[in-house]
Amino acid sequence: MRIWKQLFLCLVVLAAALGVWVYTVPSAADTLAKYGVPEKAVAMIRPAAQKPAGEAQGQRQAQAGGQGVAQGAGQGNPRGQGGQGGNRAVLVVAQPVRIGTVNDRLSAIGSGQAIQSVVVMPQASGTIHEIMVTSGQKVVKGQVLARLDDDEQVIERDKAQVALKSAQEKSASYKNLQSFSRLDVFDAQIAEQAARLALSTAELNLRRRDIVAPIDGIAGIVAVNVGDNVTTQTSIVPLDDRSAILVDFWAPERFAVAIEPGQPVEASSIARPGQVFSGKVDAIDNRVDAASRTMRIRARVENPGDVLRAGMAFSVGMRFPGEKYPSVDPLAVQWDGEGSFVWQVRDNKSVKTRVRVIQRNPDAVLVEAQLGEGDRVVTEGLQRVREGAPVRIFGAPETAEVARQ
Fold this sequence. Notes:
Blueprint: H1 3-24, H2 28-34, H3 39-45, H4 53-64, H5 68-75, E1 90-96, E2 98-120, E3 126-131, E4 138-139, E5 144-148, H6 151-176, H7 182-207, E6 210-212, E7 217-219, E8 229-230, E9 237-252, E10 264-269, E11 276-284, E12 294-302, E13 313-328, E14 334-336, E15 339-346, E16 349-354, E17 356-360, E18 365-368, E19 376-380, E20 391-393, H8 397-404
Parallel strand pairs: 1-20
Antiparallel strand pairs: 1-19, 2-9, 2-13, 3-5, 3-8, 4-7, 5-6, 7-9, 9-12, 10-11, 10-13, 11-12, 13-18, 14-15, 15-16, 15-19, 17-18
């Protein structure tokens, strides 16, 4: 293709694009005037609502044969104000402004642990003689879980009982007979008390051959077998009290002041997808970690159905009431070169009001603007709305009256 044909084709495409832009963009005339296009050329494409009153009225009279304006003023057709302005009121849909609250939400990943967890160890060394607990069994505090061999301790207890009985008889005879001095009687009483203490020690050593549960809970895997030699450092079985789960998570430092003990917490586990567990903040650390700029928070989540386990990962969420802002329909927020704005209806005229978007929700947008509760903003018919132009609100009483006429 020759170069002149290519240039001609480019000019045709540019002209078509310019025409589409002028036709679809309401502010095209103002943009052309800003870049120095003659006013006469701009006036040919400027919408009637933006033209001077005399020019717009002359064009309508030329098109309607001088009858349209007179009929509109006589029949109450909404054109201009009192039949003098000549601007046609645009029919729009408007929604009232409401007041909404910013939903500040904290989401974090935490790890769960039992409200009480211990590893049971024997209080004496010896050989496992009997195991009385199985994995997964529910036990109560003081229940015997296992026993060590106790033959030696039984003998020591019996010897202590014999020694006590002998000391008691000796002390009684010294008291009854007058031939002994007070010092001999006193020594006999001391011997009786020593024998009694020896018996208590022997009974204590015998009781320590029983390995008992220190808390209520669920037994884990038993780590020993009958016949194993154990010491006071040998782990027998872990116990977890999981009637409630403590979830530790880390919150950014901006929530350090907002979080307080007792605040509600929502937690969900990967093991129970779709199920949300309610809890409360149980404890808050007293400092912010300097490396991560986070604070450790501990939440207590109740576990009545015993479906949660220690060590599970939890997704934790908390909601905080934020500041209040005007809430508008998402369709009302428009954008131009200077930022976002809405068309506010004041005295049946459209006013461009600048807004700053604070938070976007599915059904509303919270904005910072000079808007009050109950103010109306345009949500439909935005393409024909101009600054200061008259508008009619669909469904308003005055609009219904005009429709009946």
